[in-house]
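Researcher: Here's my situation. A collaborator sent me these components and asked whether they could plausibly form a single complex. I don't have experimental data yet, so a predicted model of the whole assembly would be a useful starting point for our discussion.
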Amino acid sequence: MNRILYLIPLGLFAFIAGLGGYMLTQTKDDAIPSQMIAKPLPEFDLPPATEGVEGLSSSDFVGGGPKLLNLWASWCPPCIAEAPHLETLKEAGAPIYGIAMRDTPEDVAAFLANHGNPYEAIAHDKISAIQFELGSSGLPETFVIDGDGVIRYQHIGDIRKEHVPMLLDLLEQAK
Amino acid sequence: MIRGLFLAILALIAVPLAAQDKAPPAPYANVQLEDAALEAQATELMETLRCLTCQSQSIADSDAPIAGDMRHQVRARLLAGDTPDEVRGWLVERYGDYVSYTPQVSSTTWPLFAVPLVVILVVLLVLWRRLSARKIKSESEA
């Protein structure tokens, strides 16, 4: 009986070591999901990011069908990578609204000239306040907002080619 | 020649700097509140909020632009009359328990608080049994 009791610590150690070893083989997911899904878009009213584009407010998302809300910045390299796929989404009929974080009008204009402008409107948030309101923790991030202005989905990171059909599906479902 | 190469290497090392934004920091990112008591509350709160991009640092420790923007939110909200608990709640509502370094009791965190209590109870029980056993032994020897 006592001998079996002595085996308990060894068994515990083996279990914890095994668990540690198993966790090492798992890919680490650093993404922090927003808790704002299924909640209405927080209120905001932001100025245009550069000359010749429109600003954006939360009331623009109420009525008029589902939309994509894309958080980006001209200084964010993955935002360049997703630019062609935003273009594809736009060509497929997805209305895309952008908000640039901590940017300058000149940099935004240069980015649009280099990588295209798939946006219906581009607002500027110089203190990233909208990121905190949305529970977003990095750039780029894209939210699917339904016609009632409710947040339906959060896409963390750049949109790749394989994400395009999924986002179009989600827009369709949000109708 | 070597000097040119050295400079070229230095220039390459500086490439990541190009991926930083040029916008100035938010007003209260690196500026203390005038009210010292309020600033003390802000500091205490900022030391227990996790930076979102540099995941093992508090926003008080981190130099990331987003941490600066979070410090601005904390100071601006305290200045507007929110309590530290309200500001923490506002962030937890958006990011979950993840963002806070002082966990609240919830359906997922209760073992954190229950396990120490259970351990203390077990230790007290063992101590009580051993001490009473010793007492009986010494009484029977007497």
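Model: Some features of this prediction you could bring to your collaborator: The longest strand of chain A covers residues 67-72. Strands of chain A lie at 45-46, 56-57, 67-72, 96-101, 121-125, 141-145, 151-156.
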